[in-house]
Recover the amino acids of this structure.
């Protein structure tokens, strides 16, 4: 870590983040293998404190020519650093590496893709199937001038399947994906079964039940109500005054049955790491316990500004990743909603009639901070506890905070991972506004 | 550099090979309330090799030019492995061999403006917004500039060097009254220089005023309305409603989808003309050459209401027996090109705003855009804010306006197209296939659409 040493000579304090991504992706389009891609990319980011002021710069490649000079220019014109780079304590390493994934052959990915295509076409010969598979490892090291360098190799394995079913002017598109760290957590059969279930449920178009309806959000649709909470529980939003949850610690803001944890310590969890992108050990952080707000997640900046301790939630690139090019910010790791009990069939029976939200269009495109949502829903009509068909041209609208306080009717007992970061059961809400054309 | 690329390509043992090498310089300034969240000027390099063997692609990335020969071999090896599994081999449509340098011409090159000045400018806008009202609790002011030097070469002899500038400004305000939180923003973006971001005080104040005004606005009542869209939202509308479905990579392998999107099919009324253009001076979506080295074409997607063209890469064009259009774009050297939009717009018509609104008894005038998303047939787009239309006049402000539509109906419901055209490059971009945000522009005049569904109570 020559660069960090050189930086330490020019600055009071310095922090170097180095990310090495090494992996393979395989893409099938229209059921046919299209591309095999390998990547081996190094990205680096340097933060400095010079005369008390914070600077940042990023670049690609091992040599990182010009990175120190760029960070010095940034620091020269920067603001006083609200935090210091910490000498953070050690915590036991988490399981984040799987030899089987690291050594998985490219041919195996191709075979898995071919098998998924075959399984779906076997039942629905007229759909177009696109498959995306990826495996690899990301090596991250974070070090600063007052703490030892931390380094970790993390493996990942992902598979996403799209199926498009076109019948004249009726186009139905379904999607399912899985992201895991270890091969034994990977369940290809479940992924294919999920795609087939969506195709079966959506075979026929059914009238939309309109007005104030019971809506069952399957796990892939729950970000409609969870995304506002990601903004609300951010220590930075709390500091800025843009969180409705500001000053609410200890208050019962949600339904008593609703509990939410940001758990960064899940063994082999899809986004698990032993430390965050600022070198702080990750933690298990209760956000809501039985409806009561318990805390917020913080990176170094948010913690310093709100006079508290960092929670190991300083991540680069925000929710969707993007890595080394951006400075860390306060972001959740794994959002885990406590399940209720009962299977999907029990929820459907309880629901009687209403709407199932499989997923939505336009997620996050609105005033998320307030909790308001209004989305086109890809979903199904339910009558007498049975799925009768797929809805079209249908909008659901409401407010996440209101629904999680007064509208929660039940939580399912079976949780699923979605988007590689949310672990939740289906959530049944009453009084969701549903309109259609 | 150029010689190393030519040499590596000459040695390649693939049916076809291409190399793209990018040098990117960017700077970024971001404020939230009193916090300077980002201040930087950084540089990076990177490249992508794509090899075609037996109708399958192999792709390899590199961040060090010295790795080019080995990565050409790696891409070839991957393509050879993939070729053993391919059912219908990918083939490329013929295109002319190009040898050209496209240099940017900027009034005030952002690279020569000191970071301190960019910071001072962003800070001034930030202060304007914060100082507008005590109900403004926070801001998001973000300045970015990017200068991408992109070198493209392939084994057919094409060799193109391009300079692609991009500059954006986001001016967002967050207002709070009791528990209610509202936000509003203005954005600008162009393939231009620093001159774009100076003198935008009015936009900063407009964002602040609107955030405060939204605190007094009621949520829109859900239902089906006659809607007038302003230029920005009409631009996002045509991008989502129709642009994406005209990207040929969605349909070239799908015979059912190709039948649905057959050229000559009527989608809208005679007043409707929709274009995707690869080059308009200063526009964010410009791609003088695409990332397959194909010279830009201006594509009429809809001419007088009838589907008249699609956007293509070389592979989709070959499969469908069409000409490539220069729409194969990649957001960066980390990605292979896919079919994307550039500058997409509804051509101006004849109507005035007064003519559009006068006979609308109860409707919505929807303005500005949070964004949109499409899933082929259905799509949504979110307005930044809106007003009710009552008895032919603009009425009170409403909020949380998200509109949805169905591509097979909605374009037929456009009955008036305005004469007040604007092309708008915001501060965001388009996302597809894990590549986001890609600089694009959308454009339109005011447009009137009947029977648009809006979510709400």
């Amino acid at each position: 870590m020559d660069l960090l040493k050189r930086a330490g000579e020019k600055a009071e304090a310095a922090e170097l983040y180095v990310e090495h991504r090494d992996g393979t992706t395989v893409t099938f389009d229209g059921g046919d293998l299209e591309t095999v891609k390998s990547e081996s990319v190094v990205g680096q980011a340097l933060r400095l404190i010079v005369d008390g002021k914070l600077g940042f710069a990023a670049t690609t490649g091992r040599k990182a020519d010009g990175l120190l000079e760029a960070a010095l220019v940034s620091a020269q014109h920067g603001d006083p650093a609200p935090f210091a780079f910490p000498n953070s304590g050690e915590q036991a390493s988490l399981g984040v590496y799987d030899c089987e994934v690291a050594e998985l052959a490219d041919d195996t990915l191709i075979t898995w893709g071919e098998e998924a295509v075959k399984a779906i076409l076997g039942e629905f010969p007229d759909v177009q199937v696109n498959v995306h598979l990826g495996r690899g490892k990301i090596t991250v090291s974070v070090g600063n001038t007052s703490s030892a360098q931390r380094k970790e190799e993390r493996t990942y394995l992902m598979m996403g399947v799209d199926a498009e079913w076109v019948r004249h002017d009726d186009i139905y598109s379904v999607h399912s994906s899985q992201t895991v760290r270890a091969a034994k957590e990977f369940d290809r059969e479940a992924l294919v079964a999920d795609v087939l279930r969506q195709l079966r449920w959506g075979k026929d178009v059914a009238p939309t039940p309109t007005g104030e309806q019971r809506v069952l959000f399957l796990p892939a649709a729950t970000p409609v109500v969870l995304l506002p909470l990601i903004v609300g529980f951010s220590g930075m939003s709390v500091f800025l005054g843009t969180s409705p949850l500001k000053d609410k610690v200890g208050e019962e803001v949600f339904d008593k049955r609703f509990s939410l944890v940001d758990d960064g310590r899940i063994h082999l969890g899809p986004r698990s790491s032993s430390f965050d992108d600022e070198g702080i050990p990750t933690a298990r952080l209760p956000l809501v316990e039985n409806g009561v707000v318990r805390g917020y997640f913080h990176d170094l900046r948010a913690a310093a500004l709100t006079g508290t301790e960092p929670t190991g939630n300083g991540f680069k690139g925000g929710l969707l990743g993007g890595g080394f090019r951006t400075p860390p910010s306060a972001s959740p790791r794994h959002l885990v909603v406590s399940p209720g009990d009962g299977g999907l069939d029990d929820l459907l029976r309880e629901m009687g009639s209403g709407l199932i939200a499989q997923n939505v269009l336009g997620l996050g495109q609105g005033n998320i901070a307030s909790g308001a949502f209004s989305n086109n829903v890809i979903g199904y009509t339910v009558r007498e506890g049975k799925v009768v068909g797929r809805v079209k041209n249908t909008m659901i609208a409401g407010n996440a905070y209101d629904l999680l306080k007064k509208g929660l009717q039940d939580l399912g007992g079976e949780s699923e991972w979605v988007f590689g970061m949310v672990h939740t059961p289906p959530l049944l809400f009453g009084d969701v506004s549903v309109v259609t054309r | 550099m150029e010689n190393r690329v030519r040499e590596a390509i000459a040695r390649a043992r693939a049916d076809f090979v291409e190399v793209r090498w990018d040098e990117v310089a960017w700077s970024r300034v971001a404020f939230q309330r009193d916090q300077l969240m980002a201040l930087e000027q950084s540089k990076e390099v990177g490249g992508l090799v794509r090899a075609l063997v037996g109708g399958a692609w192999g792709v390899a990335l590199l961040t060090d030019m010295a790795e080019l020969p080995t990565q050409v071999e790696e891409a070839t090896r991957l393509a050879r492995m993939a070729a053993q599994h391919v059912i219908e081999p990918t083939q490329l449509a013929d295109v002319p061999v190009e040898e050209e340098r496209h240099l940017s011409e900027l009034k005030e090159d952002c690279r020569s403006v000191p970071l301190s000045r960019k910071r001072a400018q962003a800070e001034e806008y930030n202060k304007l917004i914060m100082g507008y009202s005590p109900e403004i609790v926070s801001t998001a002011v973000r300045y970015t500039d990017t200068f991408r030097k992109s070198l493209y070469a392939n084994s057919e002899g094409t060799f193109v060097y391009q300079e692609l500038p991009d500059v954006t400004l986001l001016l967002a305000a967050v207002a709070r009254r009791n528990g209610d939180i509202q936000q509003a923003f203005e954005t600008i973006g162009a393939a231009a220089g620093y001159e774009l971001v100076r003198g935008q005080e009015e936009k900063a104040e407009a964002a602040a005023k609107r955030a405060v005004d939204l605190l007094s606005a009621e949520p829109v009542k859900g239902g089906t309305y006659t809607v007038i869209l302003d230029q920005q939202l009409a631009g996002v509308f045509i991008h989502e409603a129709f642009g994406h479905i005209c990207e040929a990579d969605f349909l070239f392998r799908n015979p059912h989808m190709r039948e649905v999107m057959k050229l000559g099919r009527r989608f809208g009324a005679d007043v409707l003309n929709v274009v995707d253009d690869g080059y308009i001076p200063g526009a964010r979506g410009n791609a003088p050459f695409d990332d397959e080295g194909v010279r830009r074409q201006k594509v009429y997607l809809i001419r007088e209401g009838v589907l008249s063209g699609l956007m293509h890469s070389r592979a989709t064009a070959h499969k469908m027996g069409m000409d490539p259009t220069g729409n194969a774009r990649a957001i960066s050297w980390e990605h292979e090109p896919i079919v994307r939009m550039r500058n997409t717009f509804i051509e101006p018509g004849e109507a005035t705003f007064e003519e559009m609104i006068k006979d609308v008894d109860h409707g919505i005038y929807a303005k500005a855009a949070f964004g949109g998303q499409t899933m082929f047939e259905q799509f949504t787009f979110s307005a930044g804010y809106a007003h009710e239309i009552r008895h032919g006049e603009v009425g009170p402000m409403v909020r949380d306006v998200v509109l949805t539509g169905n591509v097979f109906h909605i374009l037929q419901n456009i009955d008036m197209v305005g004469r007040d055209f604007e092309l708008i490059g915001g501060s965001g971009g388009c996302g597809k296939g894990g590549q986001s945000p890609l600089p694009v522009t959308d454009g339109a005049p005011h447009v009137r659409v009947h029977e648009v569904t809006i979510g709400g109570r």
